[in-house]
Amino acid sequence: MRFDEAYSGKVFIMSNPSYEDAKAVIYGMPMDWTVSFRPGSRFGPNRIREASLGLEEYSPYMDKHLEEVNYFDAGDIPLPFGNAARSLDMVEEYVDKLLADGKFPIGLGGEHLLSWPIFKSMNKKYDNMAIIHIDAHADLREEYEGEVLSHSTPIRKACGLIGPENVYSFGIRSGMREEFQFAKESGMHMSKFEVAEPLKKVLPTLAGRNVYVTIDIDVLDPSCAPGTGTAEAGGITSKELLDAIMAIADSNINIIGADLVEVAPAYDPTEQTQITASKMIREIILGWADR
Questions:
Q1: What is the DSSP pairing of strand 71-76 with strand 167-172?
Q2: Residue 9: pLDDT band by 50, 70, 90 thresholds?
């Protein structure tokens, strides 16, 4: 585990040098072993870090400066290429360690299946847990072409872990008919197409609860974030995603961690996807990790 100053790769802007003193820890999960369309999200974490160097350290949204939050970028988990099962186990062990040390974990993906071991780790640590899922895709399949370890399955797995009534999905605009039927019949909350306004209505019902937030960058319209493996037309703007992040920051929920996944830099030569992702991470650090 890379919890020391030996990591020599790029780090998120203004990352502090000490893991021990940090309140929040950023970690990368460079895996895209199960993607069904375009690979490349394993390169997302480092490109998000590189893009962060162009950010202002001050956020006018949160009225805070990054120097006010003590966070540490631990680098990427060295996941074994092609071995999805072992990679997921390693992520779970890694997050277990972060939680045992009292850190607020911020994961950078990588494909969305990586959220599954994080859900398991969080559920071991926290009672009364709920998940906020912001995504273009339902991710409610039980398997994809016979593979139960697939980036199209993590939210269905989450429903089995904590109960569908504790899973809240927003921005969904793609999936099998059966996935939407499952959402309707199981008791989970699914808001199609939009994020910020339906989220603001739900947040008061989650007051006082332990809530983990997972964001797939493809919730954004491809005009805002073309650099992702499974782009879906008809998405939200980056402003709406920022509104959602601010609404969560202003809520009375207990945010226990977050991830942002599916940035695939090769499909966006303009770099707007990783630039946008890095700004979202800045707001998460300032608004969620520092509460």
A1: unpaired
A2: low
* CATH code reported for the domain at 24-289: 3.40.800.10
* Distance of alpha carbon 166 from alpha carbon 202, whole angstroms: 12
Distance, in Å, from the CA atom of 92 to the CA atom of 233, rounded to the nearest integer, reads: 33
CA dist 248 and 159 (Å) reads 21
Binding site members for Mn(2+): 112, 135, 137, 139, 216, 218
Q: What are phi and psi of 290, to 5 degrees?
A: -110, 70
Q: Which of 123, 110, 287 is nearest to 216 (CA)?
A: 110
pLDDT of residue 5: 45
**Residue 37, pLDDT score:** 86
CA distance 60 to 175: 36
pLDDT digits (tens, 9 = 90+) for 19-55: 999 999 999 999 999 988 899 999 999 999 999 999 9
- Numbered residues of the known binding site: 112, 135, 137, 139, 216, 218
Q: Where are the domains of the chain?
A: 24-289
Token couple for 241: 């995603």
